[in-house]
Design brief:
327 residues; Nitrilase/N-carbamoyl-D-aminoacid amidohydrolase; 6-stranded mixed beta sheet; 22% strand; globular; C-N_Hydrolase; nitrilase activity; Nitrilase; C-N_Hydrolase_sf
Length: 327
């Protein structure tokens, strides 16, 4: 039997310069607004709380130390006040929420995606495995434990951030777990039209190859925010364009018109019968796969800086004994 889920890809601008709670409040209001439209899955942009580090794209590293430190002060601790606010909004509306944040873990920032279930429970906290280009001066690296599809109130949901979609093995790791809805997040307001054009191809390709729905959200900077971030008219150009908020079916079709400017939502009903229709023709991890020829090695062990040998498992450590068995 067919199952239908109403989803929203939300294009929205952050609140710059505050403690990060202003952006979190905007997220919660958007969740409530989407709920009034019958939405059961909402996807927000990459590292939306408190904001994407646009400064790192237009300034050399030796100049953005102050802005980087400010991002540390405004970053999200998980769990913490921000995740508590969003969890309550998800629970109150019965909505699954996929949110991008700058996560602070003591001395390191991460590009982190959080999946909240309709109960408000955090089902997944994953970190971008390889920050892209300028981002490597801002965030640490994630690990394979985050390449995980989770069962939610709306189905099996997976997520990747931005150019992780250009890592075919990362995408395949999620495909092997039979994701039904893939949540993609990009920063938006970056690079220009070519970024939006590439995004259009990227999310359609994953939908076709995985045989799943793709819900993609990008951020948006107003003209005033562009001027605030750039501080120099010559640097404003790279902060325009690059927005492409959209929802794609397993057949590679856009469900509604993509949103490329301004704040708003792309809302669509996802008919899960289309997943079976697509996979009957081409199931890339099933009847179309050739595992005896090609296979993926996926290390799902969380990255740790210390392994305590010969001691029982303690907080933040894995226990080992000399014969290799777990103590």
């Amino acid at each position: 039997m067919s199952r239908i889920v109403r989803a929203a890809a939300i294009q929205i601008s952050p609140v710059l310069g505050d403690d990060g709670l202003g952006t979190a409040r905007k997220v919660c209001q958007a969740i409530r607004d989407a709920a009034e439209k019958g939405v059961k899955l909402a996807v927000f942009p990459e590292t939306f709380i408190p904001y994407y580090p646009y400064f790192s794209f237009i300034q050399p590293a030796f100049r953005f130390g102050g802005e980087h430190l400010a991002l540390y002060e405004r970053a999200v601790v998980i769990p913490g006040p921000v995740t508590d606010m969003v969890a309550e909004a998800a629970r109150a509306t019965g909505m699954v929420v996929v949110l991008g944040v700058n996560e602070r873990d003591v001395g390191t920032l991460y590009n982190t995606q959080i999946i909240f279930d309709a109960t408000g429970e955090i089902l997944l906290k994953r970190r971008k495995i390889t920050p892209t280009y300028h981002e490597r001066m801002v965030w640490g690296q994630g690990d394979g434990a985050g390449l995980k599809v989770v069962d939610t109130a709306v189905g099996r949901v997976g997520a990747l951030a931005c150019w992780e979609h250009y890592n075919p093995l990362a995408r395949y790791a999620l495909m092997t777990q039979h994701e039904e809805i893939h949540c993609a997040q990009f920063p938006g307001s970056l690079v220009g039209q070519i970024f939006a054009d590439q995004m259009s191809v990227t999310i359609r390709h994953h939908a076709l190859e995985s045989g799943c729905f793709v819900v993609n959200a990008t951020g948006w900077l107003t003209e005033e925010q562009i001027k605030e971030v750039a501080r120099d008219p010559a640097l404003e150009g790279p902060l325009r364009g690059g927005c492409f908020t959209a929802i794609v079916s397993p057949e590679g079709k856009f469900l509604g018109d993509p949103l490329t400017e301004g704040e708003g939502m792309v809302i669509a009903d996802l008919d899960f019968a289309l997943i079976t229709k697509r996979k009957r023709m081409m199931d890339s991890v099933g009847h179309y796969a050739r595992p005896e020829l090609l296979s993926l090695l996926h290390n799902k062990q969380p990255a740790r800086t210390v392994h305590y040998v010969g001691e029982h498992e303690q907080e933040g450590a894995v226990a080992f004994v000399k014969n290799g068995a777990t103590a």
